[in-house]
């Protein structure tokens, strides 16, 4: 921060003295010019004549002059004091801002050094290897502490953890290493904090980018049932269009009225989740666990439900037209009513669903919660 140049009012009394001296010099110059032009000081006689005509005594003139000069001096002093006070306020504000700026620079330096050190520890040995396992575990937990101490760096930390998880190549039949499990756990906590705690577009965008990148990771593509732990996530009436949450645990999640158009929820655990009125149009729910999920008035048109388990799901008023189901889709004892919509000719009883005796879609429009 550049220091502001000194202002004229910093000199205080010197300014007052200079102003008085300036007035004296101006009066002297006036007298000299008058004498050069007229060859005399006739204006003094004129002043004396005016004084006699008005019966003003010289003492009165002196008194008025002294009063004027005194008033000018007092006014000048008051102005100087005020300007001095304002300058002191400016100096105090400048010092405070400068100290804040320096503290921020020092904090950024410490954060950068700490982050670089943690990244170096995270790279100790290959991901999933026994060599350097404890060092990598310590680094992962340190990332969690960094996110708590410096919340504005949480997006960078999420990206680093996603890159670390993606660097691991799953070996089928081999148990998932401990550092991968811990990394997924810490990443889940950070993603939850980002997506629940704010509506800022840049942070929400970070979550979408991270989950999309994670969807191509070897862990997500493998047979390991591991994903983000997001139990009881609260995202009612939020725009989650196209989000990737493959194999995530969203048990008991609150997603009523959420906009999940084209969301990728393959293998996601959604049992007991509240999805009432949610828009799941063209969503990928292959092999998803939707047991006892509340899907009342939900829009599931063109949803992909191959291999999904909707046992005991609440489908009253839901729109199931043009959904993709197969022989592995489970709809055992799912609850539907006269306002549940599905394709003509589809016999839900073949999937273990008891149909109502009378269905009349024209009597009452399809119900849906407002978003």
**Any idea what the CATH architecture of the largest domain is?**
3 Solenoid
Compute the gyration radius: what is it? 40 Å
Elements, N to C (H/E): HHHHHHHHEE
Q: Which bin fits the share of residues in helices? A: 40-55%
Estimated share of beta-strand residues: under 5%
Instruction: Please give the number of β-strands.
Output: 2
Question: What features would you describe in this structure?
Answer:
It is built from eight helices and two strands. By secondary structure, it is an all-alpha fold. It folds into three domains: 12-112; 132-218, no CATH class; 230-371, E3 ubiquitin-protein ligase SopA (Pectate Lyase C-like, 3 Solenoid). It has a two-stranded parallel ribbon with strand order 1-2. Helix 1 packs across helix 3 and helix 3 (58-122) runs antiparallel to helix 4. The chain is elongated and about 125 Å long. The model is unreliable at 362-371 (pLDDT under 50).
Give a quick set of tags describing it.
371 residues, mainly alpha, Pectate Lyase C-like, two-stranded parallel sheet, 8 helices, 2 strands, elongated, disordered C terminus
């Amino acid at each position: 921060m550049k220091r502001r140049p000194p202002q004229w009012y910093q000199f205080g009394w010197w300014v007052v003295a200079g102003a008085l001296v300036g007035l004296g010099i101006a009066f002297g110059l006036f007298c000299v010019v008058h004498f050069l032009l007229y060859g005399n000081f006739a204006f003094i006689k004129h002043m004396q004549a005016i004084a006699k005509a008005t019966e003003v005594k010289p003492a009165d003139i002196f008194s008025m002059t002294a009063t004027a000069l005194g008033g000018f001096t007092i006014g000048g002093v008051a102005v100087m004091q005020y300007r001095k006070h304002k300058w002191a306020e400016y100096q105090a504000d400048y010092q405070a801002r400068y100290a804040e700026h320096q503290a921020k620079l020092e904090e950024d330096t410490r954060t950068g050094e700490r982050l670089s050190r943690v990244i170096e520890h995270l790279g100790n040995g290959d991901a999933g290897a026994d060599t350097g396992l404890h060092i990598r575990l310590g680094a992962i937990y340190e990332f969690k502490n960094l996110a708590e101490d410096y919340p504005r760096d949480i997006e960078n930390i999420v990206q680093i953890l996603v890159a670390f998880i993606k660097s691991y190549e799953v070996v089928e039949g081999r148990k998932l290493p401990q550092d991968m499990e811990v990394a997924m756990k810490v990443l889940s906590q950070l993603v939850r904090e980002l997506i629940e705690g704010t509506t800022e577009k840049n942070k929400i965008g970070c979550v979408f980018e991270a989950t999309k990148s994670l969807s191509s990771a070897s862990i997500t593509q493998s047979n390991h049932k591991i994903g983000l732990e997001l139990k009881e996530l609260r995202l009612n009436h939020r725009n989650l269009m196209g989000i990737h949450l493959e194999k995530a645990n969203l048990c008991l999640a609150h997603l009523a009225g959420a906009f999940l158009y084209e969301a990728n929820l393959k293998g996601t655990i959604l049992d007991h989740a509240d999805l009432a009125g949610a828009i799941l149009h063209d969503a990928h729910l292959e092999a998803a666990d939707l047991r006892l999920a509340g899907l009342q008035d939900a829009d599931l048109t063109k949803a992909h439900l191959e291999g999904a388990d909707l046992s005991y799901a609440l489908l009253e008023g839901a729109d199931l037209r043009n959904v993709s189901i197969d022989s592995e889709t489970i709809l055992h004892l799912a609850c539907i009513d006269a306002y549940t919509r599905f394709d003509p000719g589809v016999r839900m009883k073949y999937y273990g669903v008891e149909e109502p005796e009378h269905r009349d879609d024209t009597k009452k429009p399809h119900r849906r919660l407002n978003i």
